[in-house]
Every structure is written in C-alpha cells, then in structure tokens.
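Dear Dr. L.,

I hope this message finds you well. Following up on our conversation about the binding site, I have prepared a predicted three-dimensional model of the protein together with 6-O-phosphono-beta-D-glucopyranose. For your records, I am including the exact sequence and ligand specification that went into the calculation, followed by the structure tokens. Please feel free to forward this to your student if that is useful.
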Amino acid sequence: NIKALIFDLDGVIVFTDKFHYQAWKKVSDKMGIYFDETINNRLRGVSRAESLEIILEKYNGELSDQEKAEMMEEKNIIYRELLETMTADDVTDDVRDTLKKLREGGYKLAIGSSSKNAVFILEKVDLLDAFDGISDGNNITHSKPDPEVFLKAADFIREAAENCLVVEDACAGIDAAKAAGMTAVGIGDASDYGKTDIQISSFKELPDVINRLLAQA
Ligand code: BG6
Ligand code: MG
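The resulting structure of the complex is given below.
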C-alpha cells in the first residue's frame, strides 16, 4: 500500500538540469573538453564527482585529485550563481498543487536527491516546508543507482520501503528505486525506460496513479 512518495528533485520538482548543463559547459569549454546535451543526459541522477568522471571521458590526459576538486568547485560556484536566480515561479502550479493535494490526502512526502544543493534549491523556490523529509547528497555515501538515498528518505519519514513510490526522471534513479524495493514512476527522460513501473507525463496524474495501485492491492 502506497503511503509515501519520494521525489527526485532535479528534473522532477524543478528544472535545474539546464543550469547543470550550463555550468559544466563553461568548465569543460575552458579545458577544451567536448561536452554536449547527450553527454549531459548521462549526468542525470549521478553525483557531482561521477558527473565529472563522465565528462573527463573526452579528455586526453590525466588530472590530479586536486585539479578535479578545483573543477568541481568551479562548476558548483557557477551552478549556485544560476540557482540564485530561481524563485517560487520556477515551480509549476501542477507540481505545487499536486504536492498540496497529496499531503492533504495523508501521504508523507520526501525528497530523494543526489544533490548537495537540494535544501538551497528548495528554499529558493519556497518548497522546503512541502516535504516531511529530505534525503540528499549530504547524507549518502553511494549515489544512484545505489538505493541508499531512497532508503534513507524512507527512514527519515519512518515508512517501509515497500510502501513508498518514487518519482524520477533519470534511469539511474529508476534503478535505485527498484533496488530499494519501491514502486518507480518515470517522468520526462525516464518515462520510456524499461524498468519503470508506471509512466506519467504530468504531475496531475499522481493521485490517480496511487488510487489505481490501491484498488489493485
Ligand atoms: C542530481 C543531478 O540531482 O544531482 C545530477 O541530476 C547532479 O546531474 C547531482 O550531478 C549532484 O548535484 P550537486 O548539486 O550536488 O552538484
Ligand atoms: Mg533528476
């Protein structure tokens, strides 16, 4: 029985993917590393350090840990400057209203994000109070597709994994949700991924999706 929903943040609640792209693009251009939207898609759901490793596949040479750390730092500074421009208007009514409706319906809501900037983003868009628990890049040692971020989220809201439904836009996130023993709903990019249990094209469909699952149970 679904009693809680765990939402990925980037690409699900907010569209920060474009900022991740712009920030990594600046850093890679500076280093003369080829980087495009297709490569950017592979960065969905994975940590900052793993993102850098994917980008460096196009780099001919060796970088020290110190140099890698500097690149990640630089990317994050540019990314945070872009995040600074975000306001409550960067969350669609669809998302805001659906979250409200789900909460009124008695469901617990959590965030399960690989990002270390999750709380900062939620503050900027005025959604920090919309969630009962936040599991993010600061409380995990393994990022998606490892289930840790979602298992921690379930822990934070004191819910059994099997009662949790995860909403994700990344294949790595769908894998993580399945590895956690949760129901995986795909939106956007992950919606045609084979391991996704249920696909939605809009947030509004979520209450119906849950009702259908409850009727089947
Ligand atoms: C995920 C994004 O939510 O967070 C990834 O989908 C990103 O693309 C990861 O690399 C880490 O984000 P941050 O904010 O900690 O650099
Ligand atoms: Mg995402």
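In brief: The pocket of 6-O-phosphono-beta-D-glucopyranose (ligand 1) is lined by residues 9-10, 20, 43-48, 51, 76, 113-117, 137 (CB under 6 Å).

With kind regards,
A. P.
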